[in-house]
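Final paragraph of the annual report: two paired records, presented back to back.
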Amino acid sequence: MCASAFAAGTLPLTSTRSKRSTSTSTSTKSPPGRGKFATNEAWSEEWKALGFGARLPPPDSQMTNLLFVQTGFGVDQHGDRGRDGASKAAVRAVRNAIEFNSIPGMIEAVPGGRKEMLIHVKLGVPPKNEATPLEPMDIDLTHVAKVFPYGRLMPIQVVVGGLLFPTGRIVHELGDKDDVAICVAASVSIGYDSGERKTDQGEENEVPHKVYDTRDGY
């Protein structure tokens, strides 16, 4: 997934405020037959003009066939955490996961091609504070959603993870109140829905894809 080819269009994913948070599904209009955008914000004016942007998947979509998994991390050293939360680090983590990859095979591997491929994003975000160790820092998921130029973006999953670390540098002009930097980890999975359903879905919000085990000869 080359990040230079990515954008998005309409699903106000505002902020995350729980141990596990997923995107909501409110979106704007789009051309008939194409589906609604995953966010109403575009990565750039160029992408907006070209109609780039991930769209919402059909209701009850599941990634039954997992084809490609990308991982990355992003760091934000400065800013007002009360206002920005971990949004910048999250966007950088997702871009880091996708920007060094190319996936031309999706055109043939996914029914409907790259426009119909499902995208599942999972973010590991540091806790908001010591008093709420199971609650991740706030993230404006709209900024994460607009990173993708095509495909069907599934609800974004946020869990406690990542890293906080001291940098030894405070820049008040950038809104710093301390020298703590935020590191967010991201996994971006790509696949499609074959229509088949498992009877045992496993952990809540986990994608029910097939797992290949070497003990089975894979």
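The closing record of the year follows.
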Amino acid sequence: QQQQQQQQSVFPVAQRPPMVNSFPMHPQPISYFNAGIPMRPQRVCRVTVLKARLAKNYGVMKMDPYVRFTVGPNVAQTQICEKGGKEPRWNSIVDVPYPEAYSNMEVEIFDCRTLGDKKIAWTDINLAEEDLQNPTEKWFHLNGSHGDKEGVILLILRLRTISVPVGGTGFHPLLPPQFMSPPMPQFQPPMYNAPPPQRRPPQHNPKHIQQLKEMFPDMDDEIIKSVLTSSHNDVNQALSTLLELQS
């Protein structure tokens, strides 16, 4: 059994399963109402992925961890925390379709590698035993090569019902996991292959951060900044997202 786990711990890039149903820092589902498309309700488990504390950094360089969630046939994942090492922070939100026929959610942490991603920690969460109607921050213990002492991961789990098109999932398709970095602008490279211009991270207005901090004194500063970033520094949109996180 141990040999089988070791064989399954490395996922070659070419054999990565398709990544769907993920909304990193964008909790609002796709809107189809203006298009006149028939809709149906979709039950999802909304996971706020905050951070992890791992027992070991596998490899010479700092690890680039990301988290994958599986409920039945449904898979979702976070972005990659570049050089997160033993203490990665994602501050991401992902939606995983949660049919009533399934209650187990598999949580796996991978180290993104060029020749194949390596699974370094994992755990199973029985969603039927979690209070999804009154979500709170909770540490979950992880298993790995150190047994049940591989580390812990901090999550917020909540039950949501969203609207998706009839006959579809309503989720954005994903490419293989992406690094957590500012989006690059679309441009046509010149013929002489000049290096692409770098886009600076958005600058937060300290007054906006202070206002949101006064309204949410128990909210972590990094989460407030991440929500502001995903809202393009729109305070009203950030306020709506933070209110939903606390709901």
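The longest strand covers residues 147-165. This concludes the annual technical report; the extension proposal builds directly on these records.
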